[in-house]
Each structure stands twice: as C-alpha cells, then as structure tokens.
Amino acid sequence: MRLPLLALLARGPAHGYELKQGLEQLLGSAYPQPNVGQIYVTLGRLEKQGLIEGEDIEQSSRPNKKVYRLTASGRTELRTWFDSPEDEPRVRDDFFMKLALAPQTGIANQIALINKQRRQYLNSMRNLSKLAAEEDRANRIAHLLIEGAMLHLQADLDWLERCQEELEELE
C-alpha cells in the first residue's frame, strides 16, 4: 500500500480519502478496495519515514483535514520502485504445500485437493468475467488487471492439470 500511495501523491497533494478514491477509480472493482483506516495508518508511517509530509488544513464547517505531499526522499523511493523489476516466483505456494504434505498426513487426498482447487479457480474465473462485463469499458487499467488475473488463473488451471497427470502416473 505504501508505494501506490506515494505514486498517487506524485501527481499532487491529497488527503487520505482522496487517495482511497484515486485507487478505487484507477483499479476498478476487481482490485480489493482499500480500507480508509489502513490508508491513514500507512500515511502516518510514510510521514514518520520522511517520505511524505502532512499539513493540517482548516475547514470552517468540518474538522480539519490533513493533506499530504511527497518529499524529495519519497520521490527517490518511488523512482527506485519503478526502476526495480518484480521478482516474486511462486515457489511459496500454500496450495502446493498442502498437495505435497497430504500423503504424509492421511487426512487429505491429493486428487481431491486438486479438484477442490480447480473448482475454486473456475469460480474465481467466472467472478472475474462478471466483473469485466460490469466494469466501465473506459477504465482500461481495471480491464488489464482483470485480464491479468484471468491469465494467471488459466495458468494455475493448466498447472493443476499437470499435477493431476503426474500424480495419476505415480499410482
């Protein structure tokens, strides 16, 4: 959450609720909606780290609001983030750990686990398809997010098929 908030502040000062709305508008309904409390906690941490600075703005009819700006250190942190490729291989996968340990426990059947996971992925795919149909076509970022998630799910489904074939050969 911290780096996306820095990225939103790179376009100009904003308060927490504006940042929440910015994320929601950019990413659409497919992305988990950020909790405003989480945003304010993160903003507090970013301010303590010197990556942003906050200024209390008086409002006549409402409580004061705090508007945040990106600092030079925050801009440097943001550049570093954009310059660094993501390297997160999915070797720490909870499902795979279940699959690997199931025979040793006598509690779960590997093929049953695969089938249950397959149903979960197919349900997720259906839900994403519905979201794609409902999402505003003008929001290309949200559609790219949904498309990427669906492609990952398809790869996961293909991998489950491969796992099942391997396990059936061992029997």
List keywords for this structure.
single chain; 171 residues; mainly alpha; two-stranded antiparallel ribbon; 2 strands
Protein architecture, described:
This protein has 171 residues and is mainly α. It is built from seven helices and two strands. The chain has helices at residues 2-9, 16-27, 36-48, 72-83, 94-105, 110-134, 140-170, and strands spanning 52-57, 65-70. The chain has a two-stranded antiparallel sheet. A hairpin with a 7-residue loop joins strand 1 (52-57) and strand 2. Helix 2 (16-27) crosses helix 3 (36-48) and helix 6 runs antiparallel to helix 7 (140-170). It is elongated.
User: How large, in whole angstroms, is the Cα Rg?
Assistant: 22 Å
Uncertain ranges: none
Name the structural class.
mainly alpha
CA distance, first residue to last residue: 45 Å
User: What is the share of helical residues?
Assistant: 55-70%
Shape assignment: elongated
* Binned strand content: 5-15%
Strand arrangement within the widest β-sheet reads 1-2
Compressed to H and E, one letter per element, the order equals: HHHEEHHHH
Number of helices: 7
Strands, total number: 2
Mean pLDDT: 89
The biggest beta sheet, please?
A: 2 strands, antiparallel
